[in-house]
């Protein structure tokens, strides 16, 4: 009787369709061919159109049809309708901007009586994302929410992320987006587009403010010393210069079309490259792995805070802005003192704030006094692969969400997070271990009873 109960438990935990564990264990290909109604379609990212990728949408909605996990494979039920959208037309159907195809099998889809592999259903041009203003305000009314996404038919908009932007200061305070298990396996190898300014940053070419020579010129004006500016801003080889740092990382989005939408200057701020390319990149990569290791959705607030200060030749600290004119009183495009990521699991009301110091020239005593704004719990965060106290690649720390949010002026007033978000695998790991132990016990008892 015990053997039968263990066998039933093993079957229920390991074999029940739709259970979380079924996605944790590699599934062997069945010896018999599944009926099409069960097999459906599975399209690996390398079987998607590599150039001119359409938007892959749930029909009639504003939602992308994403993978359900981190394996870089998009699954569609047999005969399921899938909407594909182009900015212009399709290469095979130039007169069509939107088509609805239905899953046949593997990577093949029906359209208008013919079966096509997904890879040939490409657009005749690349998608270009758009920005649209909203009526939503942020930062206590000082800034506005701008949406970045793709316009389709009238009154239909596919959103990628929201930006809290303050035109008066040329400052993006935060970007709001979401991450799921699929973010653990984003699409790679897409051509990198140029940065896009759009109708924002009036009166300047924002791109020119980021050039190394312009940075040296501006910082020399602020600090009153060209020699000091040349010492602080060096060259693109050693990373000691300020790059156009993504606020929400390109790889935080799944499809190439979504990733290309991140190249708005609205999603950038001045970021020291040796911080951007090392510790902060490790934070971003670890967050994607974290999202890929757990079920559910994370709301992510990727943000910047404050204005960093650099010391002049006398040791006096001055605020650093990329657009600066002392005569006219111009101070715009601040170089932030902090980059941060707030992760919020709304279902569990758990969260954590990961913070990076965007200043590789400031000493530790100043960091601890002016840049660490809340109780540092970074040593408890085991899932990030970082050298968080290495000043040359960007000092980092972590805090409870409510404390950090209050310290930076509550730009996210709706957040009231009950507990700290911990390790990624969570319940899935516990269930997996329990299932394995249950099955070991089952087969051991079978061996004993048959001996």
UniProtKB/TrEMBL annotation:
<dbReference type="GO" id="GO:0000014">
    <property type="term" value="F:single-stranded DNA endodeoxyribonuclease activity"/>
</dbReference>
<dbReference type="InterPro" id="IPR040255">
    <property type="entry name" value="Non-specific_endonuclease"/>
</dbReference>
<feature type="domain" description="DNA/RNA non-specific endonuclease/pyrophosphatase/phosphodiesterase">
    <location>
        <begin position="157"/>
        <end position="404"/>
    </location>
</feature>
<dbReference type="GO" id="GO:0003676">
    <property type="term" value="F:nucleic acid binding"/>
</dbReference>
<dbReference type="InterPro" id="IPR001604">
    <property type="entry name" value="Endo_G_ENPP1-like_dom"/>
</dbReference>
<protein>
    <recommendedName>
        <fullName>DNA/RNA non-specific endonuclease/pyrophosphatase/phosphodiesterase domain-containing protein</fullName>
    </recommendedName>
</protein>
<dbReference type="InterPro" id="IPR044925">
    <property type="entry name" value="His-Me_finger_sf"/>
</dbReference>
<feature type="active site" description="Proton acceptor">
    <location>
        <position position="246"/>
    </location>
</feature>
<dbReference type="Pfam" id="PF01223">
    <property type="entry name" value="Endonuclease_NS"/>
</dbReference>
<keyword id="KW-0378">Hydrolase</keyword>
<keyword id="KW-0255">Endonuclease</keyword>
<feature type="binding site">
    <location>
        <position position="276"/>
    </location>
    <ligand>
        <name>Mg(2+)</name>
    </ligand>
</feature>
<feature type="signal peptide">
    <location>
        <begin position="1"/>
        <end position="22"/>
    </location>
</feature>
<keyword id="KW-0479">Metal-binding</keyword>
<keyword id="KW-0540">Nuclease</keyword>
<dbReference type="GO" id="GO:0005743">
    <property type="term" value="C:mitochondrial inner membrane"/>
</dbReference>
<dbReference type="GO" id="GO:0046872">
    <property type="term" value="F:metal ion binding"/>
</dbReference>
<dbReference type="GO" id="GO:0004521">
    <property type="term" value="F:RNA endonuclease activity"/>
</dbReference>
<keyword id="KW-0732">Signal</keyword>
<comment type="similarity">
    <text>Belongs to the DNA/RNA non-specific endonuclease family.</text>
</comment>
<dbReference type="GO" id="GO:0005634">
    <property type="term" value="C:nucleus"/>
</dbReference>
<dbReference type="GO" id="GO:0006309">
    <property type="term" value="P:apoptotic DNA fragmentation"/>
</dbReference>
<dbReference type="InterPro" id="IPR044929">
    <property type="entry name" value="DNA/RNA_non-sp_Endonuclease_sf"/>
</dbReference>
